[in-house]
Design brief:
Elements: H1 2-20, H2 24-36, H3 40-52, H4 56-68, H5 76-87, H6 92-104, H7 112-124, H8 128-140, H9 148-160, H10 164-176, H11 184-201, H12 206-223, H13 228-242
Length: about 250
């Protein structure tokens, strides 16, 4: 009877522990609130608690705190370790950060092979920055053989998500016929979209203004190759992409 009573007490203790234990979601909310309040040290403590429970988001956020020295001493090695733990769980932004650090040799041995591996994983999950970087690697042949077809594939995906550098690069590739059939109409479309994005961001930035002028010149060069009908069609496509659907 005494053993049964002790067993019941043990079950109640375990059950109450489950009921009152904080979930990783609760912990992350506290960490995020502390971060918003500017209390980075407390935020780092909460993110660590979630990370040590195996939560991928917590591991990613702790990695960021280490990488940029927010509320904690800056430590690239620790940052890379936490990004890796989250990346191996499929956390896309951790995969991207680990790729960048591998490419730079920041906190890990410099390895283009590792960088490509993690960019690929993040790109396949739809990360636009990873798609842009992976496309550039294939375009330039950095650590891999040059492959314009693959470059076009990944530039296209990133450009469709609004990455200006990819829109510009895709315009160049259509203009020159690199990895795709030469198509001045498509070149005009992508240069136009890049120019529109840059014009929105270029206020007060001389560097962006110079980029905008360069893109506009290329857009105008492509326009000279188009018939009036092709120009009208291209402009309609640009307008439809940039105009929000309010229906």
């Amino acid at each position: 009877m005494k053993k049964i009573f002790l067993g019941v007490l043990l079950l109640l203790f375990v059950f109450s522990g489950i009921c009152f234990a904080e979930t990783s979601g609760d912990i992350l909310k506290k960490g995020s609130q502390a971060y918003k309040n500017g209390d980075f040290e407390t935020a780092a403590e909460w993110f660590r608690k979630a990370a040590e429970q195996g939560d991928a988001t917590g591991q990613y956020l702790l990695g960021l705190m280490y990488r940029y020295g927010k509320g904690i001493s800056r430590d690239s090695v620790e940052a890379a370790e936490w990004f890796r733990k989250a990346a191996e769980q499929g956390h896309v932004r951790s995969q991207f950060n680990l790729a960048v650090m591998s490419e730079l040799g920041e906190g890990v041995s410099k390895s283009q092979t590792e960088a490509i591996k993690w960019y690929q994983k993040a790109a396949e999950q739809g990360d636009a920055q990873a798609q842009q970087n992976l496309a550039s690697i294939y375009y330039l042949g950095e650590g891999v053989s040059k492959n314009y077809e693959k470059a076009v594939e990944w530039y296209q995906k990133a450009a469709e998500q609004g990455i200006v550098r990819s829109q510009y690069a895709l315009g160049v590739m259509y203009f020159k016929g690199q990895g795709v059939s030469q198509n001045f109409k498509h070149a005009y479309i992508w240069f136009s979209l890049a120019a529109l994005s840059l014009s929105e961001d270029s206020q007060g930035s001389n560097n962006l203004k110079e980029q905008l002028e360069r893109v506009k010149k290329l857009r105008d060069d492509a326009a000279k190759k188009l018939s009036p009908v092709q120009m009208e069609e291209a402009q309609e496509i640009v307008s439809s992409i940039k105009t929000p659907d309010n229906s």
